[in-house]
Every structure is written in structure tokens, then in C-alpha cells.
Amino acid sequence: MKRKMTRSQLWTYGIAIVLSSVLAGEITYMMNAGLSSLPVTGTAPNLTAINVATGKPLSLDSLHGKVVLMTWYYTHCPNICPLTMYHFEQVQDQLEQQGVFGNKVVLVAVTFDPVHDTPSVIRQYSQHFHANSRGWIFLRSAPSQIDTILQQWGVQVRQTSDPMFFLHTTKTVLIDQFGNIRWTYPTEYLDPGEIVANIQSLLARSNWS
Asked: Where are the domains of the chain?
């Protein structure tokens, strides 16, 4: 024989259902919006360039499903660029230790000087920083395409009186698994520990789904 629920029990049961719905909504919001410390600041424009390691075209959209850390450089840069690559090497080492390098996270370096940065020059440059091509991708576009790509990404480059050297925007961006820009770092102040922590937060978010 079924017992009828009292008014008090019905009230308690109703509150429990409401609270469960609110909690589920909060979890869904967190999954969709990510951690508050890493807000969505834009959508990463797609670009297609040659992966120097393979010699084949690679589009940024094809990396959806992975966290991407992307920066801009040129090989003759005397200061900021090599420091950036050194920090990328440190990030690479930590991600390899965590077992997420290449399969869940990739690093991307895009040259804005494809005239001087030939594939052979870039390959030699990448070896200097012990870049593992399994998860650290060096991209080179055709010289005729680079201006369009730079404009889409808001990267400003100005040639100095010496044609081998440039003044340029120093920018490194963190892109989540869905192609959203989640953070933009001033490249001259990169902190590998901070970057890896931010990457971990994006990976943890994807594990909730």
C-alpha cells in the first residue's frame, strides 16, 4: 500500500528538484563559458600555411579539438623572438611530462617573414630550440598571403632600414578546443608556468563534458 506524501515532504521534495535544476544549470554554464579567469575574447581566424616539418598545408581549423598556443616570429629577430621560442621550449617540456603534448595540446609558430625564412632556415631554427614536430608546428605562408593573415590577426609588422629586421607586434594567443581565443599574452613577458596552468584549466574543462 502506497503512503501519501505529507505536505512537508512534498515541499522538501520540490525544493530538492529546484536545487538540482539550478546546480545542473550552473554546471552547464561553467562547461560552456569555461573558467572565469579565461574568458572567451574572440574567435580565432582560420589560416592555412605550410607545415615546415611535413611540407604539407595545414589549417588552424584542422586543430579544433586541441588547445593551441600560437605565436609570431621571424628567425633573424635578435631579442624577443628567440626568448619566446625558449619559453615555448619550456612549455613543451612540461606538456611532454604531463603526457598531453601533441595529442591534446599543440604549439604553433608562424613566421611573418617568409621571404627570408625559407623551409630549410626554419627547420634549422626549430632544431636550435629542440622543437618536437609531433606537437610544435612551424608554419610558413606564401609571401603573397602573409599581409592578409597578419591583418586578420591584428599583427603589425614594419620593416626597418635594414631589410633583415622588423619592428612587430609581440603577441601570443591561447586558443581552446573550440577555436575560441581565451587569452592573449604580451610575448615579452611570457611565463611558462602560467601558460601551462591556463592550458590545464582548459583541458580540465573539456573533461567535464
From this structure: 1-33, 42-208
